[in-house]
Amino acid sequence: MTWKEWKEAYGLNGFCLKVIAVLTMLTDHTAAIFLTPGAAYVNLRIIGRIAFPIFCFLLAEGAIYTHSLKRYALRLFAFALISEIPFDLAFHKTVWYPSSQNVFFTLLLSVLVLWFYQWTYRRRQIILAVPAAVAAMALAEWIHSDYGAMGICMVLLFYFLRDLPWWKYLLIGGFFAFTWWGLLQIYALLAFPLFLFYNRERGPAFNKYVFYGFYPVHLLILWGISCIL
Q1: Which of 66, 159, 202, 221 counts the highest number of beta carbons within 10 A?
Q2: What percent of the chain stands above pLDDT 90?
Q3: What does pTM read for this prediction?
């Protein structure tokens, strides 16, 4: 059995990666909201670093397979708005905290860059996509969306390097290892071995809005528990 055949039979599909991302995100947010810095806090947040690269990876895959990037962007925009109050309550204990925006805004900006790239590609004006990408990254930093410009950069690398062989993950991982130093961020590289097992299958049919909705709902639940405690 070849490696390709093994992945098709036993590899990770998109549904499996989403479940891993959701569980590791829940682990990360639970530690961030309930624990104080210490061994348990650090270990759980290390596990949590796995989530975001998976979301970026799946977003890049989704941008390739979706029938409409415009509708994709509208969904992300809707959930960015829905999630902002739960995000602020959970992490900043207030209904409105303008100095930090939830991760859906970063994902939304990433999809808008890809949509504009595809638009310029069809018109043979790809050069216009470069300043658009830079502007999106600057906007992400300006509004302080989760992961900011580096988050957008990660999505773009997954998208444009998709058809390279397995060593593309060394390139992407190496790039972030040398440019994305910060509190625990280096541990995001733990997600990259999972992509080697991805078989490009969607997996079991499952309502996508469940995964979208999990983000604001779990933040509200964690915030509610923190208020009780």
Answers
A1: 159
A2: 74
A3: 0.94
